[in-house]
Amino acid sequence: MVDAAVSIAPVAPRSSHRAERRAVGWGGAKQVVVRGASDFARSLLDLCVPPACPLCGADGVIEPPRLTPRCECRATFTEPDRGWCRGCGAPTGPHVPDCGDCQHCRREDAFPFCGAVSLGLHADRLRDAVLYAKTDGGRPAVRALGEDLRERWAERLAGFDLVAAVPHHWTARLHTSHDPAAELCDTLARGLNLPSRPRLVRKRHRTDKQARLTPTDRRANLRGAFNVPRPTSVAGKRVLLCDDVLTTGTTARRVTTALRAAGASEVFVAVLARGVGGT
Predict the structure, then answer these.
(1) Where are the chain's structural domains?
(2) Buried b (16+ CB within 10 A) or exposed e, 181-204
(3) Cα 2 vs. chain centroid, distance in angstroms?
């Protein structure tokens, strides 16, 4: 006799579900192994060759889980008396609380991202540090600045599902040994224990360098330049988007638009420095 509570209806083969779970499991395991091996190799190198500050060369001290040294020079990047707009990360002036509604946010074409943070204004020592971080030997500098960024804005950088980077066209990557935005993406993802997806967004065609263009030309230059090849990987997710500098916000705007079109529920921008005007 067949128990009435037991269904005898045919069921779909489960092999595909097993294969899917196996693929996800292997992918996650591979990411853990690669990240662990990278951290171990970096720690071993620091043990054999005592590290110095990647920005000024001073001897530093490593405090786990930090993999880059600290020194006094990096304290000069912080501006405790300056307020910062919570919407776009722009400075609001000394002794002004974080406003969330500055002159840059009150434009007709409001920023599509929900907020932005940086280490400070793209000027003086921080500007020099960011420029150095873009050079072929600047990878340690990006990691050091990225860890400082995560520590300073820990509360605002919490609650995301993954970390992505503003992409370059593949031909641009042929001329440089590293990508600062992708390195910042990896650094923040490691510190926040989140998946790192530096190639989540693709740049479909070459464009002129934004720094050489007027604000109007910048908007036209990047129109339709970005897309997300696999929308399912971002659908319904909160994305932390990384870049080196945010000035007019055009690049972050275009990448955010592509992410939102692919289904991202929210995009928040983290950069090393915030430029205003020509900085």
Answers:
(1) 79-205+225-274
(2) bbbbbbbbbbbbebbbbbebbebe
(3) 58
Q: How remote is the C-alpha of 16 from its chain's centroid?
A: 34
pLDDT tens-digit series, residues 127-140: 988 998 888 888 88
3-state secondary structure of 275: coil
Ramachandran sector of residue 233 (left: φ over 0; alpha: ψ -120 to 50; beta: rest) = alpha
Q: Which CATH number fits domain 79-205+225-274: 3.40.50.1860, 3.10.100.10, 3.40.50.2020, 3.80.30.20?
A: 3.40.50.2020
End-to-end CA distance of the chain: 81
- Per DSSP, which regions of the chain are E strands? 82-84, 91-94, 116-117, 162-165, 196-197, 202-203, 226-227, 238-246, 266-274
Rounded CA-CA distance 182/55 in Å is 19
- Model pLDDT for residues 73-90, shown as the tens digit of each residue: 666 666 666 788 888 888
185 and 260 in contact (C-beta within 8 Å)? no
Which has the closest alpha carbon to 52: 69, 73, 37, 35?
69
Q: Record the pTM.
A: 0.74
Q: How far apart are CA 181 and CA 98, in angstroms?
A: 25
